[in-house]
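=== Structure Prediction Worksheet ===
Name of assembly: unnamed complex
Input type: mixed (protein and possibly other molecules)
Chain count: two
Listed entries:
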Amino acid sequence: MGRGVSAEEPPKGAEPPSGGAVPGGDAPGAPGRGESWERRLDTPPDVWAVFLQARKRDPHIHVGDVHAPDAEMALIVAKENYTRRDPCVNLWVVRAGEIHSTTEDAAEMFAPATDKSYRFGGSYRKQQQIYHSGWRLSHRDEDQ
Amino acid sequence: MSGTPPAATDPRVGAAFREWLLRTADDELIIGHRHSEWTGFGPDIESDVALSSIAQEEIGHARAFYTQLAAGVDDADRLAFARAPAEYRHATLVERENDGWEWSIVRLVLYERYEAERLRLLSASAQEPVAGLARTLLREERYHALFADAWLTRLARGREEGHRRVQAALEAAWPEALGFFEATDADATLAAAGIVDSPAAQRRRWEAAVRQVLEPCGLVIPSASPKEGGRRGQHTPEFDRLHDQMTEVYRSDPEARW
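=== Predicted Assembly ===
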């Protein structure tokens, strides 16, 4: 089953950041700190992160992990471990050890130092809510 | 929900079809019960949950078939739990105690291919509402076969020990798997009425299907002859023990409403 093509694109915020690809490994040098701010997750090779898409066009959400020797087996066991109760139309698995993460120490990087409320765009947000709900409703039938 | 058991203006054909449905329900109930015994003992938590889920689904299928059989004339719980062991019509393979994980996986592979074949026959049988039910159940069987094949492949194509143990389990299971196709008068009646194919034709398709899974794993199909009896109510002491345990709660208060 192909994914339907929407005439309208999801809102800007839903797109992945561009141009930020980090070379593999532990890149040294946090901005201005001289210490590592990113690393790969330190997990055994048989741990797979499971991402579940509840309905078409929803983002895949990380719902947990499974142990499995390979991707096919990971998908097979993920199906029964994560979709028994909740709706699902699609699953992703990825080796958890392939996921790059910012370190916990880097959390302050995300906290604004000055008032950034001008970015919140409250009126836009309202519009986005309307846009989202209309977008969802307009696709509800084919999502069944 | 129609209370009338499927089809057949001819009462002999009707009775044969009921016999065939009862086998189906019994196979599902008993293999579901055996799978459920792995709950808490699977090789890892992931497959433990997955096989437990398959067990629930098989018992759910049994319930659906018992409900069809019971409609208007009996009670599904009574059919499932109040019969004597010799009144059950499942093939003896499904009643066998679990041995190693590889045994249960081999049995699952053999059973799921048979189950898919049977549900396809049923869905094409034009015997509503059972045919519609079979079409719905096929959806779940697809996953059961995926799970079974994935495990079989990894056990049999891994190390030498795994391969040897899977081959041994296959040899132990094969004669009783052929017992799926034990032919009784009911089969002859149904085949003559054009409702379901003969057991021999079913077996040919089933063997072709299981070969496709087993042979790429380097497994050798045994040449043993069938061990039958289950379809006529002849079971092993392993079933007596299962029956005793499975019906314990029901027997404690047969009139209870759940």
